Amino acid sequence: IGVRGDDLVLIQTEFPPLSERTGKLIELPLTVILLSKDGKAERPIVTFRPRHFMGPNAMRVWDNSFELLSKEGKYIVGSHNLRYSIEIVDIEQAKIVRSFNRKYQRVKHVEDDFEKDFNNKYGAPTMEFESDIRGLKLNGDRIWVRTSTNDQKKGELWDVFSMDGKFLDNFYLGSGKTLLKADGDIVFVTEKNADETIALVKYRIIG
């Protein structure tokens, strides 16, 4: 995830044995740990439990997982659920100190041919809705949330929260644009042109 002082902030996981992968949704523990740079000291912080579909010969992510380390190294911001939910972990306290969401109009999931074949072959469940949250970015003390709403003309809908969970604003990024990084009032995006070429563009936020 990142570096905090003299420690590395890492994700540790352990897959269940094959005998338990019987074609069902299984919680896969993701434990955030602090590991000293010499590798001698390890400290577990918190464990998230997103679900995955697991069969004897197949696996598929069910709950998206996102973890970000705040700039000052005090918090981990995460999301590990199909529904709109964000968790704030205080690293020193080694626990989730805030969890919040907002009312959100869910987006119906459209099953493609590959997914349909996979579900039929392995008995995986059909997903009814898209994952509400499709990505997270940190910009100073602001949390930027990439939602599943994507308007053909206006592009992706992004929500903005304070670190204490207060909803501040939202915006559409623009059709054909993908957000790479937000740093203060500077935003870097890629844009797809009419001829299918990709351009890297730098914007400044005004206001």
Can you tell me about this structure?
The protein has 207 residues and is mainly β. 5% of the residues lie in helices and 53% in strands. Strands 1-2-4-5 form a four-stranded antiparallel beta sheet, with no helix packed on it. Strands 8-9-10-11 form a four-stranded antiparallel beta sheet, with no helix packed on it. The chain is globular, with a radius of gyration of 19 Å. The model has no long low-confidence stretch (mean pLDDT 93).
Helix/strand order: EEEEEEEEEEEHEEEEEEE
Question: Mean of residue pLDDT?
Answer: 93
Uncertain runs are: none
| Continuous helix count | 1
N→C terminal distance: 31 Å
Helix-and-strand structural type = mainly beta
Strand arrangement across the biggest beta sheet: 1-2-4-5
Task: Indicate the radius of gyration in whole angstroms.
Answer: 19 Å
Q: What's the total count of β strands? A: 18
Helix content: under 10%
Shape: globular
Biggest pleated-sheet summary: 4 strands, antiparallel
| Percentage of residues in DSSP E strands | over 45%
